[in-house]
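For the sake of clarity, the format in which proteins appear in this thesis is described at this point. The fold follows as a row of integers, each naming the local backbone shape at the matching residue. One such record is shown here in full, so that the layout can be seen directly:
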Amino acid sequence: MHLQKHDYMSYTYDYPRPAVTADCVVITRETEPKVLLIQRGNEPFKGQWAFPGGFMNMDETTEQCAVRELEEETGLKVTEIKQIGAYSKVDRDPRGRTVTVAYLAIIDKAEAVKGGDDAAKAQWFPISALPKLAFDHEEIMKDAKRLYLSLSR
């Protein structure tokens, strides 16, 4: 069933609802693995590096959101992703209460990428030399590395 905008916008709730985002961590299988990052084009953290990601639409799952945002922001298409975890620290996003679900995509080698949508740039970095990351993406990266290693055995 596909919801029309008016189907879900006409409700009022007694409880506040956080925004939901999804992030996609892409790591290569190369001898020196690389991680795909985007340089943020908008505030908050404008100019800083982060994982491709964004706000979930009402008619998609967090998995679909992660894959869509990855393609919109970098041009990279993936089909298989694994959930890293959910991140819900109260102050993780200065725009308001936001919960993100992070996913890992593992690809053979770095492919051509280009910043799009609200990403100023998209670029591959060696996993051993990542820049400072926006939001709580350092914490997500630690968990992503752990999952990557367990899946790469």
Q: What stands out?
A: Strands lie at 19-28, 34-40, 49-50, 53-55, 82-87, 98-107, 119-126. The longest strand covers residues 19-28.
